[in-house]
Automatic annotation (TrEMBL):
Acidic residues composition-biased segments: 72-93
Native species: Ostreococcus tauri (Marine green alga)
Biased composition, class Low complexity, residue ranges: 1-19
UniProt xrefs under PANTHER family: OS03G0410700 PROTEIN
Gene3D superfamilies to which the protein is assigned, alphabetical: NAD(P)-binding Rossmann-like Domain
InterPro entries, A to Z: NAD(P)-bd_dom, NAD(P)-bd_dom_sf
Region of interest: Disordered: 1-26, 56-93
NAD(P)-binding domain mapped to chain residues: 108-272
Protein name: NADH(P)-binding-domain-containing protein
């Protein structure tokens, strides 16, 4: 496993545009139904490399042999100047002079984190998946060659080398936000349940971490561009069937599927607020079916930082 900074960036392609039928009432904007897409099928049984390669095809630019990403990785492997560092070497908190193109997803083996990674992989983003040290082996099988892994046993600075944006799905460890500032991260997308009803004894560790009210304040005080997404109750079910509703002012209610929440996180990365400001909104599934096309621009343009 190479240190995050040593791995070259993969070529990126914009996610397919989908459109939105919107209404405005009581500060709520709705997005309507799209047909079931490739992401939904892949996420049903996320199996990593083989599954994704089957969908993309053997000549895909994502992780397939002959792609730019893999060719560059092979060249680096043959280069004696590139050290195949062990985890303890990767832990060094040294800022490397590398392009900041990657998106770090924290708690990438959690339900939401895994879904966000899958969405970004399908968008051909340069993904860094933060995983527990004990989960690295299973994560390698889960994500295959389509995401670089960063162990949470490494220093925060080492995990952030080459990272331009972060999707924070779980707990924020001490010093994480300060390290984002130090490493010149441009945008943090924070999933927060600080003002949502809890799921009580059935909540996962990932969900419990999102109840921490201090996470929002810490990110807002960082001076970075911050997007705070407050989902209603998160439901582990296939997404894509119900409209997506944005609201502000703690007016949202109901629930949202984890897949639709993951898609919202991925879309939020393309709409960062100005540096030093925080854009906060609630997201839920509405009662109507999603329309054939989604206009995410309309949803995000309706929000006020």
């Amino acid at each position: 496993m190479r240190a995050i900074a040593a791995s070259p960036a993969r070529p990126r392609a914009r996610p397919s545009a989908a459109s939105v039928v919107k209404h405005r009432s009581s500060g709520i904007v709705r997005a309507g139904k799209s047909t079931r897409g490739l992401f939904d099928d892949v996420l049903d049984m996320l199996e990593g490399g083989k599954k994704l390669r089957r969908w993309y095809g053997s000549d895909s630019s994502v992780g397939a042999r002959g792609s730019r990403a893999n060719d560059d990785a092979d060249d680096a492997a043959d280069d004696p100047s590139v050290d195949d560092a062990a985890p303890e070497d990767e832990d060094e908190d040294v800022e490397l002079d590398v392009p900041r193109t990657a998106i770090l997803v924290t708690n990438a083996t959690g339900t939401l984190g895994e879904s966000v990674c899958a969405r970004l992989i399908l968008a051909k983003a340069n993904v860094v998946a933060e995983v527990g040290e004990r989960e690295r082996a299973s994560a390698e099988g889960r994500f295959g060659p389509y995401a670089r892994l960063a162990s949470d046993a490494w220093s925060v600075g080492a995990r952030l080398n080459g990272v331009r944006a972060v999707v924070a799905c779980g707990a924020l460890e001490r010093g994480f936000v300060d390290a984002c500032v130090r490493r010149k991260v441009k945008h943090i997308v924070l999933v927060s349940s600080a003002k949502s009803a809890s799921n009580g004894l059935f909540a996962s560790a990932e969900e419990k971490a999102r109840w921490d009210r201090g996470r929002e304040a810490e990110c807002a005080a960082s001076g970075l561009a911050v997007t705070v997404i407050r989902p209603t109750r998160v439901k582990e079910a296939p997404g894509g069937s119900k409209e997506i509703v944005f609201a502000q002012g703690d007016t949202a209610s109901g629930e949202i599927t984890v897949e639709d929440l993951a898609e919202t996180c991925a879309r939020a990365l393309t709409k960062p607020p100005r540096a030093g400001t925080a854009l906060t909104f609630e997201v839920s599934n509405g009662s109507e079916a999603r329309s054939e096309r989604d206009d995410w621009n309309a949803l995000f343009n309706s929000l006020k930082a």
